[in-house]
Amino acid sequence: MRHYVMAAVLLALAGCQSTKEDSLTQTDPPLSPVGYGLKPQRESLPMSFANPVGHSPHSTYGRNSQQLFADLRASNVGDTVTVNIALNNNAQFDNTSDRLRESTGQLGGSATIAGGGFGIDDFSLLTGNALVGEATKAKSKGAGSIDRSEKLNLQVATTVTEVLPNGNLVVSGSQEIRVNYEVRVLTLAGIIRPLDILSNNTISYEKVAEARISYGGRGRISDQQLKQKGWMEPVYNAIIPY
């Protein structure tokens, strides 16, 4: 009978484990549709486009040919510019704190009472001493350290989504790479100056104002890292933390 009870308890505890299975374990993680990153985070200003100039069918250079003497760097909505990300940051902080506080106090007094009467000839003498002392001590000490190192070397092509009144460009772009059952996602958005764009239509990431760079992923590995625990595991860790 005891074995049946133990088996029933184990089955009940196993049922408490989260049974929600991620659909990514059965199929490949989906990719975002092309143009998804072009959605502006705020309403863009209206911009007019010039009508295309007609050309002769017998011309040597068509409308799609690059102009020899024109500036081909991004300047209008829809143009693309490549952002070079060469992130190599190191941060190290060491903080210590030590606090000690002590206080002492003492209160004392003495009293003598003598008297007679009510048919009593002898004097009764009462002498007392009182002493109250107080002492407190508080001490705290803490230490903390941070040591971080981040390195990222990538290139991402962004699209101009808005031209600000002062001529600066709002750009946004993303890349998605799927390897087996894991999708790596790189997104970048920010504001750039046309003067900072190089002749090869590229710009360095440190010249992107309000830069928002995100590099992450989704898939089987990411799902396992974020998988919800059963309710018994936190209880077990609280009782036996080591």
UniProtKB/TrEMBL annotation:
What family, per the record?
Belongs to the FlgH family.
Q: What does this protein do?
A: Assembles around the rod to form the L-ring and probably protects the motor/basal body from shearing forces during rotation.
> What protein am I looking at?
Flagellar L-ring protein
Please provide, in alphabetical order, the Gene Ontology terms of the cellular component aspect for this entry.
bacterial-type flagellum basal body, distal rod, L ring; cell outer membrane
Q: Which Pfam families match?
A: FlgH
Q: Where in the cell is it found?
A: Cell outer membrane; Bacterial flagellum basal body
Q: What is its main location?
A: membrane
Q: How does it assemble?
A: The basal body constitutes a major portion of the flagellar organelle and consists of four rings (L,P,S, and M) mounted on a central rod.
The Gene Ontology biological process terms listed for this entry are: bacterial-type flagellum-dependent cell motility
Enumerate the InterPro entries for this protein.
Flag_Lring
**How does the protein associate with the membrane?**
Lipid-anchor
Keyword annotations from UniProtKB, A to Z: Bacterial flagellum, Cell outer membrane, Cell projection, Cilium, Flagellum, Lipoprotein, Membrane, Signal
Source superkingdom: Bacteria
HAMAP family in the cross-refs: FlgH (MF_00415)
Q: Which GO terms describe its molecular function?
A: cytoskeletal motor activity
